[in-house]
Please model this.
Amino acid sequence: MIENKELLIPPNISLRLAPEFLEKVFQETLSHDSETGGHIYGLRHQEGNITEFIPMLSFTPKATEEIKRQKDECTIGGLTCKQYLEWVYLHWEKARKNFLRREPTQESYYENCEFGFLGTWHSHPGEMPFYSLTDTAWVNESLDYYADYLFPILVKRRPQPRIHPQSAQFTIDHRTIIEGLFFYRTQANKKFSYFLKPTEYSLPLPQIPAAPWYVEAPALFNQEYDALVASGFSIIPFPLFIPDNETEAQIWLQVTHPQLPHPLFIRTPSDYHLTHHLFLARKDPREDLQLQINSHLKPHPFKSITEFITNYAY
Model:
């Protein structure tokens, strides 16, 4: 239980939650009875000594080895967490510019905004949205790398009076609410946690594309990769790049095989795990603008990348 002296409410810091962020958090919390959680990405708006946080995105890894859900502990981290971080940072600047073209009156606000990692939320079983000694340890360890840290703690429960006067309640239906305390801590003072009282952010925000298929379906990616290697292919992933005329990064693989005279370039759309559409090119797409535009490429649906190459490329 937290001592009351720690429950300070800073007058110069506000927290506004994007609906898309809340939707992800609610979906994840309601899906598990054990602890679960996610990384928080969003905006930090600074004007003078006034700071505003706007959590926009929540990321919970799909790879089971990257999230440990237990009754009294939740740890998150691994390869797809790093890949998602790379994805959102790559897309932010273009998303911001496209947004400001549509919403030019917001330009002065975004001049003082920084997009980035804001912290980690997690849920607790039962009705205790307070941080434990374990929570304190990992937050303080994280503050070795970050100047400050958001760490909301949520519980799901039946509609009842608030657990704490500063907690926030979100009604899911007539039988369920999600209640949480939104804690904040700084590197300069790790001994104290602060309350932030959240409100909903109702204005439009820049839109970052959904996570790519190798993040959303890591088991499928490993399956595809292993099948290619077993068939004698060598795979060279391309660095992600966003063509000038597009808003989303293209995902290309270069594959070679002793029986192929030249390398092949395979593009997988970000939703490949849903569509199984593939694009084939015989030139490096980074050097061929027409390939980037893809106006003459038609998608080819196959069960796997290996089947695609075997049936179409030879």
Remarks:
- The mean pLDDT is 90.
- The longest helix spans residues 79-102.
- Residues 256 and 263 are 5 Å apart (CA to CA).
